[in-house]
Specification:
- The complex is a heterotrimer of chains A (about 700), B (about 160) and C (about 425).
- Chain A is of the alpha/beta class and about 700 residues long.
- Chain A has 4 domains: about 70 residues, Ubiquitin-like (UB roll); about 150 residues, Alpha-Beta Plaits; about 250 residues, Rossmann fold, CATH 3.40.50.740; about 130 residues, Dimethylsulfoxide Reductase, domain 2 (3-Layer(aba) Sandwich), CATH 3.40.228.10.
- Helix content of chain A is about 25%, strand content about 15%.
- Chain A is built from 22 helices and 28 strands.
- In chain A, the strands form 7 sheets. Chain A has a 7-stranded mixed β-sheet. Chain A has a 5-stranded mixed β-sheet with strand order 2-1-5-3-4, covered by helices on one side. A 5-stranded parallel β-sheet of chain A has the order 20-19-18-21-22.
- The longest helix of chain A has 17 residues.
- Chain B is an alpha+beta fold.
- Chain B has 7 helices and 4 strands; from the N terminus they run H-H-H-H-E-H-H-E-E-E-H.
- In chain B, strand 3 and strand 4 form a beta hairpin.
- Chain C has about 425 residues and is of the alpha/beta class.
- In chain C, the strands form 3 sheets. In chain C, strands 6-5-11-8-9 form a 5-stranded mixed β-sheet, with no helix packed on it. A 4-stranded parallel β-sheet of chain C has the order 3-2-1-4, with helices on both faces. Chain C has a two-stranded antiparallel sheet with strand order 7-10.
- In chain C, helix 5 crosses helix 6, helix 9 crosses helix 10 and helix 13 packs antiparallel against helix 16.
- Chain C is globular and about 75 Å long.
- Classes of the chains: A alpha/beta (about 700), B alpha+beta (about 160), C alpha/beta (about 425).
- Chains B and C meet through helix 2, helix 4 and helix 5 of B and strand 3, strand 5, strand 11 and helix 13 of C.
């Protein structure tokens, strides 16, 4: 078979690889063939019949969405017959459509509206009674309006194929055919909202967004989801400094159109009533609102005093703040406070992995590898719950490339359904269980290995040895918790490692050690809630907290600064695969400041010069000084994801081995932040559970 | 759920006649035979058939809505199906159906209060050359007239 | 007891054993010449079996009329996958009731036909998909199959020939669409009976993704006769390219409705006259639906033709499934069109837009029209909407709905006009619809 097929469309010569569908091939010539049911990446339907075209030497009109190109094919998309067919289809679709565009959420971005405008009749010939069925609510986030539905099956397909669920189906037949949820009345699913986003019309609407605005009244800001570590781009619809919706319909970002419930709906913490909007200073044992200058002065005064008397500082950074903020924070700690007592909530053993892979340039997996590589091994993670985008990639890989998936987990996971083999283990038996997969893995041409916190320390090296022993190219990913868990590591929020995993001269205290240190004098916690699950041993330390809410930790603070969330700031974050992406500020919440600005103001108040606190300037410094971060700027500035380079050289292990433990969020939890998302709280599935095979 | 020994035997056979791993094929036959015994396709039956065939309940739900002979509400003991499709229409099927409505005092897909009869206007059931036709449960009646239908209903009433 | 008196003018090939008691017994079948064709076929190379079927000019009796031998030759015999044989006994085209008789009166003929099909395409497993309404036939067919197993005509090493074949019955559950072969495949897989995209054709990827030979009951039932007497003898019964006999289901306004076996090429009017005993009540013939409700109707003046696939195609209609519906002069053609559309709207699976929306739109429009609330402008719209479906739907159901409608609007336009301006249906007062 030739590598290229030549065809003629509307008189234009077109080339396309064999197997290309006509509907895609014509795009190169700037020709649009309209379609509703066709959706890139999902099974073919050929149901809407909107893409009918004339193909010479075939008597009937042909469906362009299922027709592969053929050598010498001559196609006409712009003939009276084709126009008439399209008109006919739009007319058919509108016969039972309520035409309630003025009150429909989809109005203005509705594919049926657009198609009617472009290809439809100007008038209606349908005089009969329309079919009416009342609107239904299926879950806190999903509503279904049957009359608007055009039965394109996109929702069913994305749920089944994309999400690996059977929450949606179809009942009845003919004009009574109707999309149904589980047992006809509710959704038992991820509440991801993929079905809503993929709906070409206003049949599926979102409980968060419905009847709130017209699409053209919003500005759309593409930024990175703050919740898990996968780094999905979410495009926030903003009106009057309020985020109204999240989606990624433009398929920008490494996640394409994918978003889980958190990326799509859990931006709502930004407007939570308990959001801090003023600094708080403890006076007479009570936290009271204070001005920024009062609060800053209070902190600077105390820190200076503690520093002068040689007191002990502890600094705990965040897994959601930007790289720039993290870099600036460790600089602040090390240069201004003079301490290596800096850490964050660690979740995956990236340093050991980087050390074990030192010198290799082809052993770190990207998120794309989960879609492209021929085999994937998941060790110790409920991927669909904890790493939803990676799970989506894996399912797509199976669907599109017949990839082989291997699973080693303590309990059942959704990936079992698509897995070539699954093994179960009891804690401690992780590596041993892989031996049962060895023969199968050896037979694979290549492999991606993703592992959770079940594998850490020496076990990481043993896992890499196991991978090496297979004799096939293997790439690895250590699974992490939050949007910048990886950035916190890379930027040196570690007691023994500085930015780029360079060893520090005198390793400081780890997070656990700081909390356990009875003589700690000052604790500075940025965007974290360690006291949510640990106790502070020191009796009267001076605690400073920067956060969005009055967390358990903030309640212990002497001073609390109201911080801006990831959706309110610019900067970069690095996902679990080391892919760096840019945040765009979508809104501003009155009274808050980005953490970077708070750091800068504190530095100024302390009389320290750490340079200008502007994200772009600090990123320049990061690019110049942090190993792996010399990434091309154009990729970032155009909204892309740039993978950091692998390390060459030894990464020292911490002086004292410490057990790290990930948060193990489900789809419906997001650490302390999740408690402030109404959406995550109200869905039936909240808070969900791991290893249920769901 | 357990069924009669005969039905259990049929189910057991159904699970063996399709290729390995393709037991989904047994969904429709199981529902068809089970609803005769259970009375209709209940939620419990959906879950049971899904479990036995190794499919998701949703996959069973989808099927139920599609096939016109699968019922989610109980029918009468005698389900009277009157064809009014073209061949029967030409030979009086419509009049027969109207007559049945009047005689039984119920409309399409309704059940008499005593639960004895239900009525359905059905599409062609393959008795065109002996039209008009009526099927009571699974028994065909050909060349049916209004009088013959009345007699049939009377006989069934006596039979109970 | 047969459902209608046979006619002495019939050419009884497939129906020659009809009326013999205990037809479900294999012994009875064997005693009447049965299973000999299968034994003969075991001695023939598969290519030769297919060649005989090709020579016979047997064409699919389900409705499409595709040459059967050619269809058999598409199945990749040497494929390493299992190959399945399926019999389409979902007989549901309005006007059609012949497969019922073939299963009821000669079930072993069907079994034998499938066995020969199995030999031809190297298949060892077959299913008979019987519509749910035919429960009594499912039971009868199960008995016949059990008896065939008991007497060594099914199962392992059939009659010592070394050929294995298992045969099962699968019940439908009420869906016209499942008569469409790919919808039937989805249905037998336990799904909604929604048609599949073609290619791949069932011969290559059919049931459970494996090569599948799918034929109608009458088609398989013809095969033992072809193998026994030779393809040429069967072909000679019909006209060129239209081999053999077929069962025609005569219904509607005739004196003697019934299922009759006649050779292909039999003149239509003569058939109505000599078999049907003419139009009932001495009425004049108005129209004929020649092969099931999907076929464009023929006016009385168009009926002076012979009945074979090609002649009917030339006349703008189809031989279809053999369901011939005779319509007399007192019949309202708007009502006929409405009833036919009601059927297709009810049976549309809902998969594709033009069929799903078009059939219901037309049903509502025809209903309004027949109720006397039509407008003159509706008449061309009925035709245009039908044409917007024609050739543009996912499967042939849309065409099946559009074709009769288009033909009725075009050929009986004056009847539509007679319904205009609030007039009641001009035929309503006549008793023609009722029993004479």
């Amino acid at each position: 078979m030739s590598d290229i097929v030549h065809l003629t469309v509307d008189g234009k010569a077109i080339e396309a690889p064999p197997g290309t569908l006509l509907i895609n091939a014509v795009k190169r010539a700037g020709i649009e063939i309209p379609a509703f049911c066709y959706y890139d990446g999902l099974k073919l339907q050929a149901a809407c019949r909107m893409c009918l075209v004339e193909v010479e030497k075939t008597p009937k009109l042909q469906v362009a969405c299922t027709l592969p190109v053929a050598e010498g094919m001559v196609v006409h998309t712009d003939t009276p017959t084709v126009h008439e067919a399209r008109k006919g289809m739009v007319e058919f679709l509108l016969t039972n459509h309520p035409l309630d565009c003025p009150v429909c959420d989809k109005g203005g971005e509705c594919e049926l509206q657009d198609m009617t405008f472009r290809y439809g009749f100007g008038e209606s010939r349908f005089l009969e009674q329309k079919q009416h069925i009342d609107e239904k609510q299926w879950s806190a986030v999903v509503y279904f309006d049957r009359p608007r539905c055009i039965n394109c099956y996109r929702c069913i397909r994305v749920c089944d194929e994309g999400m690996g669920l059977t929450a949606l189906g179809i009942t009845n037949r003919g004009v009574l055919a109707e999309i149904i949820p589980n047992e006809h009345d509710h959704l038992n699913c991820d509440e991801c909202g993929m079905c809503i986003d993929i709906c070409p019309v206003g049949a599926l609407t979102s409980g968060m967004y419905r009847y709130k605005t017209r699409p053209w009244e919003m500005k759309h800001v593409g930024t990175i989801c703050t919740h898990c570590s996968n780094g999905c781009k979410t495009t926030l619809g903003v009106r009057n400094d309020e985020i109204i919706r999240g989606n990624n319909r433009d398929r920008s970002g490494l996640n394409g159109e994918f978003l889980c419930i958190k990326g799509r709906y859990a931006f709502d913490f930004t407007h939570h009533a308990e959001r801090l909007q003023s600094p708080l200073v403890r006076r007479n044992g009570k936290l009271e609102a204070a001005s920024w200058s009062e609060a800053l002065a209070e902190v600077a005064k105390n820190w200076t005093a503690i520093k002068q008397r040689g007191g002990r500082f502890g600094v705990i950074g965040s897994t959601r703040t930007t790289n720039e903020e993290n870099f600036f924070l460790q600089k602040f700690a090390r240069q201004v406070l003079g301490t290596n007592n800096i850490d964050h909530h660690r979740s995956g053993d990236v340093p050991t992995l980087l050390d074990a892979l030192s010198g290799r340039t082809d052993a770190l997996a990207t998120t794309a590898d989960f879609y492209e590589r021929k085999a994937v091994l998941i060790v110790g993670a409920d991927l669909s719950q904890e790493q939803p985008f990676l799970a989506w990639q894996v399912r797509a890989n199976v669907r599109h490339h017949n990839a082989h998936i291997y699973v080693a987990t303590p309990g059942p996971v959704r990936e079992d359904r698509v897995a070539a083999a699954s093994v179960r283990y009891q804690e401690g038996g992780e590596l041993a269980s892989l031996e049962n997969l060895r023969e199968k893995l050896r037979a694979e041409p290549e492999l991606v290995v993703a592992f959770g916190d079940a594998i850490q320390g020496d076990a990481v090296r043993q896992l890499v040895n196991f991978g090496d022993s297979l004799g096939v190219p293997v790439k690895y990913v250590a699974l992490l918790d939050y949007s910048n868990s990886r950035g916190a590591l890379d930027m040196g929020l570690l007691p023994h490692l500085g930015p780029g995993y360079h060893a520090v001269d005198t390793p400081g205290m780890s997070l656990a050690a700081m909390l356990a240190d009875e003589s700690l004098d000052a604790l500075w916690v940025v965007g974290a809630n360690p006291l949510g699950r640990h106790v502070l041993a020191a009796s009267k330390p001076f605690v400073v907290v920067q956060d969005l809410f009055l967390t358990d930790t903030a309640e212990h603070a002497a001073v609390v600064f109201p911080a801006a969330s990831a959706y309110e700031k610019s900067g970069t974050v690095t996902n679990l695969c080391g892919e760096v992406q840019r945040l765009e500020a979508a809104i501003k919440v009155a009274g808050t400041k980005p953490d970077l600005e708070i750091f800068g103001l504190l530095a100024r108040e302390m009389g320290a010069n750490l340079g200008i606190w502007q994200a772009s300037k600090i990123f320049e410094e990061i690019r110049g000084s942090v190993r792996g971060y010399n990434i091309p700027l154009p990729i970032l500035t155009t909204g892309g994801a740039a993978q950091t380079a692998a390390l060459n050289g030894h990464v020292p292990a911490p002086p004292r081995a410490e057990r790290i433990q990930a948060a193990h969020n489900t789809l419906f939890t997001s650490g302390s932040l999740g408690q402030f998302s109404r959406t995550l709280q109200v869905v039936l599935e909240a808070p969900g559970a791991l290893y249920q095979g769901r | 759920m357990t069924f009669s020994p005969a039905l259990e035997a049929r189910f057991a056979k159904l699970l063996t006649i399709y290729p390995e791993g393709r037991q989904r094929s047994a969904v429709v036959p199981m529902l068809m035979y089970a609803q005769d015994e259970v009375g209709c396709v209940t939620r419990e039956l959906v879950e049971e058939v899904a479990r036995r065939c190794g499919v998701q309940p949703m996959q069973v739900d989808e099927v139920i809505g599609y096939y016109s002979m699968l019922h989610t509400k109980p029918l009468g003991k005698y389900h009277i199906q009157v064809c009014t499709n073209i061949s029967c229409l030409l030979t009086g099927g419509e009049e027969l159906y109207e007559h049945a409505k009047k005689t039984l005092g119920i409309g399409n897909k309704e059940v008499t209060p005593d639960g004895l009869f239900s009525l359905e206007e059905v599409e062609c059931m393959g008795a065109c050359s002996w039209a008009p036709a009526v099927e009571v449960n699974y028994d065909f009646h050909h060349h049916v007239t209004c009088e013959k239908l009345d007699r049939l209903i009377e006989d069934l009433r006596k039979l109970k | 007891m047969l459902y209608n008196e046979p006619n002495p003018l019939e050419t009884r090939v497939l129906t020659k054993r009809f009326g013999i008691p205990n037809s479900e017994k294999a012994e009875v079948y064997v005693a009447n010449g049965g299973y000999q064709a299968f034994l003969k076929a075991t001695g023939m190379p598969p290519e030769k079996i297919i060649e005989e079927v090709k020579v016979s000019n047997l064409r699919g009796r389900g409705g499409a009329g595709f040459p059967t031998g050619l269809k058999w030759s598409f199945v990749p015999r040497t494929s390493p996958k299992p190959k399945y044989l399926i019999c389409n006994a979902d007989e549901s085209e309005p006007g059609t009731c012949k497969d019922r008789l073939l299963m009821e009166y000669d079930p072993h003929q069907l079994i034998e036909g499938m066995l020969i099909g199995g030999l031809a395409v190297d298949s060892h497993k077959g299913y008979i998909y019987i519509r749910g309404e035919y429960r009594y036939l499912i039971t009868m067919m199960e008995h016949a199959i059990d008896d065939a197993y008991a007497h060594g005509w099914l199962g392992k090493n059939i009659q010592g020939t070394g050929f294995d074949f298992d045969l099962y019955v699968h019940t439908g559950a009420g869906a016209y669409e499942c008569g469409e072969e790919t919808a039937l495949l989805d249905s037998i897989e336990g799904k909604r009976g929604v048609p599949r995209m073609k290619p791949p054709f069932p011969a290559v990827a059919g049931a459970w993704g494996c090569p599948t030979l799918l034929n109608n009951v009458e088609t398989y039932s013809a095969v033992p006769n072809i193998i026994r007497d030779g393809g040429a003898a069967f072909a000679a019964l019909g006209t060129p390219k239209n081999g053999g006999t077929r069962l025609v289901c005569l219904s509607g306004h005739v004196n003697k409705p019934g299922v009759y076996e006649i050779p292909l090429g039999y003149p239509m009017l003569e058939f109505i006259e000599k078999f049907g005993g003419g139009v009932r009540g001495g009425k004049k013939l108005k129209a004929v639906i020649p092969g099931g409700s999907s076929c464009p109707v023929l006016t009385a003046s168009e009926c002076d033709i012979i009945m074979d696939y090609d002649t009917l195609a030339k006349a703008g209609s189809m031989l279809g499934s053999g369901g011939m519906v005779v319509i007399d002069e007192d019949t309202c053609m708007v009502k006929a069109a409405l009833r036919i559309m009601r059927f297709y709207a009810h049976e549309s699976c809902g998969w594709c837009v033009p069929c799903r929306e078009g059939t219901t739109w037309l049903r509502k429009m025809l209903q309004r029209f027949h109720d006397g609330m039509g407008q003159a402008s509706d008449i061309p719209i009925i035709g245009q909407v039908s044409k917007n479906m024609l050739g543009r739907t996912f499967c042939a159901l849309g065409d099946a709905a559009a074709m009769p409608t288009i033909s009725i609007v075009e050929k009986f336009r004056e009847e539509f006009e007679a319904h205009l301006d609030g007039r009641p249906c001009p035929y309503e007062h006549k008793p023609a619809m009722a029993l004479a």
